[in-house]
Amino acid sequence: MNDFVNKVVQLFSTPEYIDSLLHGFLLTLQISYFAVLIGIILGTIIALIDTARPSKWMVIPKFICRVYTTIIRGTPMALQLFIMFFIIFAVKGFPSIITAIIAFGLNSAAYTAEVIRSGIQSVDVGQTEAGLALGLSRTTIFFKIVAPQAIKNIIPALGNEVITVIKETAIVSMVGMYDLNMAAKDIGSGQNMASYIVPMFTAALFYLATIYLITFAVKRIEKSLRKSDLRAEK
Amino acid sequence: MENNTSLVVKNLRKSFGNNKVLNGINFELKEGERVVVLGPSGSGKSTFLRCINWMEEPTAGEIYFNGKLLTEKNIRKIRRNIGMVFQHFNLINNLTVMENLILAPVKLKIMKRDAAEKRAKELLKHIGLTNKADSFPASLSGGQKQRVAIIRAMMLSPEVLLFDEPTSALDPESIGDVLSLIRELAERGMTIIIVTHEMSFAKEIATRLVFIDKGKIIEEGTPSEFFEHPKTPRVQEFLKKVL
User: Fold this and answer.
1) Residue B217 domain-assigned (yes or no)
2) Which of A68, B7, B104, B120 lies 20 to 30 angstroms, CA to CA, from A91?
3) Number of C-alpha atoms within 13 angstroms, CB side, residue A3?
């Protein structure tokens, strides 16, 4: 027990350790942030193509989207990361953070697309029909009627996806990147610390705190979206 | 007064995959007419109604509104003249009652926002729901929702109103409220097509009855002809069961 306390004191009083952890944490956040951003943008595009009304112009885009989501969801993230690192972006000097962001962004897009698609499809068809019967355009119907209702279904699942991405970025240590996970391992295996327990539990706390904050924020957003539903119940 | 023909349906067919729902419907509607469409469930009466404003795209046949052939291209403009009231009300859930009422007239630039709000308030007052203007549909009862849906259709001053089983999803108490609102529109000369199972209401309101079976109109006539002297055995059998 005494030894454990000593290790805690050692970890938090050694500037290099703190520095390593924070650097790792920053990398984790950077990869996650941009990957989620790409995921949401690309995922929205895929979902819109997927839910668009069938027409001869949409046959090929719809097919491409379906193939894309099938491949991404059907193969391990770690393998996708390796393919990005060792095949597609195996260019000397190409910044590894960009490779990682692209790998996680493309992966997240497939899952985000599913989240958004199911969110859109969960809106009752009657809502669209009401708009059509009033002579509104498909665009107006989407932005004024379908999208606002779909968002309520999308937000909770999207929060889940963000959490998944943050945790999954830990596998970048497999390609030698210095993220939070790698920092914990690096500190623990060093001569001075010579113990994994404290750095790894510390890293776990970093992950937990981040994810807790996100969960909290998502709950708040959900609540405010739902409140507008019942505004009239004074 | 010579009434103009407002709607002509020629040889309308509609299939969903292999399922042939409408098998050649021919129908005409004159201004001021109130047509009640009857028929057993699954006979295609709702599909018929939904084809008129292209909620369902016809598989074959032609529909003319005021002499104009409906096409994919012109349907959106024509829809504002054909109001529709749905079985499940279909009020927009994320908009207040007031927003539901003014959305189309303002978006379609038929009315300025102030004018639309003024008209919406008058209509709400008329149905006794002034205090619900800022409520969301979720806080309304079924009967209130349907009455709002009816005045929402009226906001565009349509030439024809289509009612697709407007009282089928309502409790008995609300049915009366909704029917009296429809009755009032009828008395003011509104041209109406209504699919309903309310026989006494049908008898009272209809200027003509149309009976659809297996995707075809097999009999039509005035209320007295239809209810007292039905010609086809199918209608005789139907009436025996429902009356």
Assistant:
1) yes
2) A68
3) 5
Cβ atoms of A134 and B104 within 8 Å: the answer is yes
**Residues of B with CB below 8 A from A230's CB?**
136, 138-139
CATH of the domain at A99: 1.10.3720.10
DSSP annotation of B160: E
Whether residues B75 and B18 share a domain: the answer is yes
Structurally, chain A folds into a number of domains equal to: 1
ipTM of the complex, rounded to two decimals: 0.93
Examine the domain organization and report whether B118 and B188 are in the same domain.
Answer: no
Domain extent for A128: 2-227
Chain B residue whose CA is closest to A130: B90
From chain A, the residues in CB contact with B90 under 8 A are: 124, 126-127, 129-130, 133
At B37-95, the pLDDT tens digits run 999 988 999 999 999 999 999 999 999 999 999 999 999 999 999 999 999 999 999 99
Domain, as residue range, for B114 = 92-139
Decide: helix, strand or coil at residue B203: helix
| CB nearest B90 (choices: A127, A144, A148) | A127
With an 8 Å Cβ cutoff, is A137 touching chain B? Answer: yes
Contacts of B199 by beta carbon, 8 Å cutoff, 6+ apart: B242, B243
Looking at the fold, whether B85 and B175 belong to one and the same domain comes out as yes
